[in-house]
Queue: 2 jobs
Job 1
Amino acid sequence: MPRYFLELAYKGTAFSGFQVQENAVTIQSEVEKAFQVLHREEVKFTGSSRTDTGVHALQNFFHFDFDGAINPQFVYKMNAILSGDIAIRNLFLMPDGAHCRFDALSREYVYRIHRFKDPFAQGTSYFFPYKLDFGLMEQAAAMVKDQTNFFAFCKTNTQVKNFNCRINVSQWIREGEEVVYNIEGNRFLRGMVRLLTASMLKVGRQQLSLQDFESFFHNEVKCGYSVPAKGLFLKRVAFSENYFPAPGLHLKAI
């Protein structure tokens, strides 16, 4: 049966996370319903990267199997059915066995913080109007790349076999009055980016020393800090070079 990858972006404010949940409106449930409306057939989707309630994505993926005829205006019509908070970007016809979760090489997140009150940033950035020592925060971010055990930066009751992650990018970026934490790695634990961000803000406020921050990676104690979901974006899901079909085999918006 043909396998397709669906690329999408979304604003997560109004949704109870990414994955289907009973009696809850999620990204997956809305996309599956839209597909059923368009093709008159129920199809189950598999997600690449789960995001929590209120978290956004600039890029994420589903894959699904479907042996019917795909509507030639698939992207346009799916977007017409879906609310303005979800945008379908592309549909790719993939080789058999392609898997949007297991084939991903890395994922990249950004956490956005605005320092001065901005009505246009509400819902997509965290208002944090306090003095910060960026030198200390940058040192803390550099430490993250040297670590592998992220037990302290994982929500409790998370069902995983291990807490090991390989982080390739960890940096703070200042963009005018906005501050952005950028992190990219091979995998992420539940709540990990928000817990790391909150801890480094504590470092920047000089309420947590660099030594105490580093100790979280060795002492198997939960850090206990977090920031709101609204500032977090899944920015990119990376696959190997030439993983996707050549242009012309996917459907773009018209």
Job 2
Amino acid sequence: MAAVVFAESAAPTLAERRLAAVAEQMVTSIEAEHLRSDRLSEQLRRERLLSESDHLTGLHNRRYLERFLDSPVKDSPMKVTALLVDLDGLKSINDNSGHLAGDAALTAVASALREVTRPQDVVVRLGGDEFLVVLPGLDAQGGVKVGERIVQHLAATELPVPWQAVPVSASVGVAVASPNRIPLDQLDEALYAVKRSGKGRVFLFDDAAA
């Protein structure tokens, strides 16, 4: 029987080895660039999150609200209702119980807003003692119900300040909005009506009565 002879594969030439080394370096370089890009994207995401968040409550701030209002499609038919929530008596809390109690009151309002809103709702601390809630897909009466739940939630809240129990309450103005416009003038008017009537309530802006 004739012997079968297997030919040995030829060793790679110097040019082939150099080409393989260059290819490996290119792959490594591309992977490193992707990693740097991912890290940069994550860093930018975190920086934007910090720049659009209120440092005390962790809620969104005005910068986020501006970007949110720029994002919807113009003339969207979606129903939108907005709430302007004002913490009652923040100055009195600060003066009588200290600024830590005032911060705790603001945090309590933020917690109440998180508790009663949906994932798709937008909750913003405008600054000071004012908060804005944007409720996509809800009409005015739906917004009033959300406002009432906020008021009820805070009415059952007391701050654990040493030697005293500090009550927390909020007033809520409600107005019909749109996906790219928040009628702050109407919300202010509704909130002012609440303040005139004794605070701790909800008032819906009425175009006909304005």
